[in-house]
Specification:
The protein is an alpha+beta fold. Helices cover 36% and strands 23% of the residues.
C-alpha cells in the first residue's frame, strides 16, 4: 500500500481504524456494508482523522488478526470470509481487512437480525439499510427480478392482455428505423409475454407480473416521471413543473418533448436547405430517458426526475447500481440488467438496441456535438447523469447556452451557413400544421405517428391551436376535416 492511497482519506471503499476496538460491532457494520456493496477495505493501525500511521507491535499483531477473523465469522450472516493481511507503511505494521462483494445478499449482523442488522455504504459512510434497500438486496441475492414477480392486487382481463400486445406492436412499428425492420416485426402474443415474464401462468390462467403493471401504468405502483425547468443551476426557483404517468412509452415521449420544448433550438442554412439544430442531440436525450426507464429500481417508490437548468440537463433515476455494475463498466458498455422483463419488452418495441450499447452511444453523440462528456454521479442510492449545455459547432457557426450565435470572434463569418433562431414549441406546431395541410381529414393517431410523438401530445397541441383560432374543425365528429387559419 502506498502513502498516496492513505492520504486520499476515507472513501466509499476504504475505512481507517487507529486501533482494534474492544467491541467488534464498531467495525462489523462496515464489514457487512462492504459485502452488500462493491467490497472494500478496513485498515487497522491508521488514525482516521489525521491519517497518522500508528501501527501494531509485531508481538501481538497475529493475535489481533485472529480476533478479527473470529469476530467476522461469529457476527455475520451469511458467512463472510475476508482476506486479512499485514502491510508495512512508513516502517510500521498495519492490518488490512479486505471484504469482497458478496453474492448471498443481504448480509447482516446476527445479533441484530435481518430486520435491523443490514448495513450499506452511502457516500463513504456506513448506514442502516432501509426497507427498499433490503428488498433490493434480497432480489439480488436470490438472482431474481422484481419486474418478473407477481403483481399482487392487479387483475387483468383477456382484453387488457390483447390491448398490451396491440400497443407494443404499434410502438415497435413506430420506432422501427428502416422499412425492412418494420416489415420484420411479428405480433406479440401471450406465450411471448410469458417467456419474458410479463405474464405468469398458473393453473392454466395468466396473471400479471410487476412488469405488466409498470408497462401499462396500472396496478397502483405509481410509476411516474417528474419534469421541471429551473432558473439558475439549483432547484431553488422553478419555472415549470410537470408529472407524467401512464404507459411507459407515453412517459418517455412526454418527457422527451418536455426537454425539447425547454432547450434552445437553432437552424443552419446550407445552400437552400434549413437544418434544425438542438443544443443537445435529441437522440442522446431520448436514449437517456429510455435508459432511466428500463434500468431504474421499481422497488424504490421514487420517480425519474428530468430537470432542465440554465447550464445542464439532469436525469436522475431511483435505485443503486445493480450488483456487479460500476460507473466505469457502464461507460464501457457493460450491461447489467435489473429489469429483465422490461428489457425484453423495450427491445421488442425497438426502444433499445443491443444491451449495453446505450451509454457509450450517448457519450459519443454528446461529444460529437461539441459538448463536454456527460457527468455520472452517485450509484449508491440513485444515478444522476448530467449533460452540460454549451456551445454546439454547426458548420462555422455556434449556439451557446443563451441561444445566441457567433462565428469567429463572435461575428457571423459570412460563409454559406447562417443560423435562424426558432421558437421551441413553434417548430413542433409548424410541423403539425404542415402534416394537417397535406391530409386534413386524418385522425390524431395518424398525426402522432407521422410526428413521432404520443397521441396525448398531439391532442394537447390541437386544443391549443383551436383555442388560439388557428385550427377550425369542419366535417362531422366521426370524420373531421381540419381547416388551418393563417
Amino acid at each position: 500500500m502506498t502513502i498516496e492511497e492513505i492520504l486520499a482519506g476515507e472513501s466509499k471503499n476504504i475505512e481507517f481504524k487507529e486501533t482494534l476496538p474492544e467491541k467488534s460491532i464498531k467495525y462489523m457494520k462496515s464489514v457487512v456494508a462492504f459485502a452488500n456493496g462493491t467490497g472494500g477495505k478496513i485498515i487497522f493501525g491508521i488514525a482516521d482523522k489525521t491519517r497518522e500511521v500508528v501501527g501494531f507491535d509485531k508481538e501481538d499483531v497475529f493475535k489481533k488478526m485472529d480476533a478479527i477473523a473470529n469476530a467476522v465469522s461469529d457476527s455475520c450472516e451469511p458467512a463472510i470470509i475476508p482476506d486479512i493481511t499485514l502491510q508495512t507503511v512508513d516502517g510500521k505494521t498495519v492490518i488490512v481487512v479486505e471484504v469482497s462483494e458478496g453474492r448471498q445478499r443481504p448480509y447482516y449482523i446476527k445479533a441484530l437480525g435481518r430486520d435491523g442488522g443490514v448495513y450499506v455504504r452511502v457516500a463513504g459512510t456506513t448506514r442502516l439499510a432501509d426497507e427498499y434497500m433490503v428488498k433490493e438486496l434480497l432480489f439480488e441475492g436470490s438472482n431474481r427480478y422484481y419486474d418478473q414477480a407477481l403483481c399482487t392486487g392487479l387483475n387483468v382481463t383477456e382484453e387488457d392482455i390483447d390491448a398490451l400486445c396491440k400497443a407494443m406492436k404499434e410502438q415497435a412499428v413506430r420506432n422501427a428505423r428502416t422499412e425492412e425492420q418494420k416489415a420484420s416485426i411479428k405480433d406479440v402474443g401471450r406465450q411471448q409475454l410469458r417467456s419474458w415474464g410479463i405474464l405468469i401462468e398458473r393453473d392454466g390462467k395468466d396473471y400479471p407480473s410487476n412488469a405488466f403493471a409498470i408497462l401499462t401504468g396500472n396496478g397502483g405502483l405509481h410509476v411516474a416521471t417528474q419534469c421541471g425547468v429551473f432558473k439558475g443551476t439549483t432547484k431553488a426557483v422553478f419555472v415549470d413543473r410537470r408529472e407524467y404517468s401512464g404507459p411507459l412509452w407515453e412517459q418517455i415521449d412526454e418527457a422527451f418533448q418536455f426537454v425539447l420544448r425547454n432547450i434552445h433550438l437553432g437552424a443552419t442554412i446550407v445552400g437552400i436547405y434549413r437544418q434544425d439544430v438542438y443544443e443537445i442531440p435529441p437522440d442522446a436525450i431520448r436514449e437517456l430517458i429510455i435508459n432511466a426507464m428500463v434500468h431504474r429500481s421499481y422497488l424504490d417508490h421514487g420517480t425519474i426526475q428530468v430537470a432542465v437548468y440554465d447550464n445542464r440537463l439532469e436525469i436522475t433515476s431511483p435505485g443503486k447500481l445493480p450488483m456487479g455494475q460500476t460507473m466505469e463498466r457502464m461507460k464501457e458498455g457493460y450491461s447489467k440488467i435489473r429489469n429483465e422483463a422490461l428489457a425484453h419488452a423495450f427491445a421488442y418495441m425497438n426502444l433499445i438496441e443491443h444491451w449495453g450499447s446505450g451509454i457509450p452511444r450517448i457519450i459519443d453523440k454528446v461529444k460529437a456535438a461539441g459538448l463536454r462528456e456527460p457527468e455520472f454521479i452517485g450509484g449508491e442510492v440513485d444515478l444522476r447523469i448530467n449533460i452540460y449545455r454549451g456551445q454546439v459547432a454547426t458548420n462555422n457557426a455556434m449556439i451557446n447556452a443563451n441561444g445566441t450565435k457567433n462565428g469567429a470572434n463572435g461575428v457571423d463569418d459570412g460563409t454559406n451557413s447562417a443560423e435562424v433562431p426558432l421558437n421551441k414549441e413553434q417548430t413542433q406546431i409548424e410541423k403539425l400544421l404542415q402534416i394537417i395541410e397535406k391530409n386534413p381529414s386524418a385522425t390524431q393517431a395518424y398525426y402522432a405517428e407521422k410526428m413521432g410523438i404520443s397521441k396525448r401530445t398531439v391532442s394537447r397541441m390541437f386544443a391549443s391551436l383551436q383555442e388560439k383560432g388557428r385550427l377550425v374543425q369542419g366535417g362531422t365528429k366521426r370524420k373531421a376535416n381540419w381547416k388551418i387559419i393563417r
